Amino acid sequence: MKPRISMITLAVSDLAASVKLYQQGLEFPRMDSPPEIAFFTLNGSWLSLYPRQSLAEDATVSSAGSGFEGFTLSHNVSSEAEVDQILAQAVTAGAILVKSAQKVFWGGYSGYFKDPDGHLWEVAHNPHFWVGPADSAT
Fold first, then answer.
1. Are 53 and 60 in contact (CB under 8 A)?
2. Where does the VOC domain start and stop, copy by copy (predicted)?
């Protein structure tokens, strides 16, 4: 197997609200897709939003669940100022700020927001990894 993540699918309770946050608020480029799902192109992968109940049915698991899901999504950018800008953009678009941007123990700078379904996004500047112009696009 050649390891890679080609798509991340987030289960959402209100598809329209989630599409509004990701497409209009965060300016993710939306692909053509059927009305019951939304696809966005990322740099080398895709993000999809799919109704929670439908995704659970597809995976043949219960749709019940709350609290911390056990993972976060991370968006690495090239500066601390860009971290602040993206967190502000997310909050303006309807996301909830969970942790204000700050210096962190591993030597970087990061903060967290959550989308309408509680999916946690870390926005981080890691001075130990180079993030090029194409990599820093939202």
1. no
2. 4-126
DSSP assignment of 77-122 equals ES-HHHHHHHHHHHHHTT-EEEEEEEE-TTS-EEEEEE-TT--EEE
Q: Which of 128, 120, 87, 82 is nearest to 104 (CA)?
A: 128
Amino acid residing at 22: Y
Task: Please give the Cα distance from 2 to 8 (Å, whole number).
Answer: 17
Domains and CATH numbers, the chain: 7-59 (3.10.180.10), 73-125 (3.10.180.10)
pLDDT in tens, the chain (138 residues): 677 778 899 999 999 999 999 999 999 999 998 999 999 999 888 999 999 888 888 777 788 876 667 678 989 999 999 999 999 999 999 999 999 999 998 889 999 999 998 899 999 999 887 665 554 444
The two tokens of residue 29 are: 């480029």
Residue 36 has, within 13 A of its CA and on its CB side, a CA count of 5
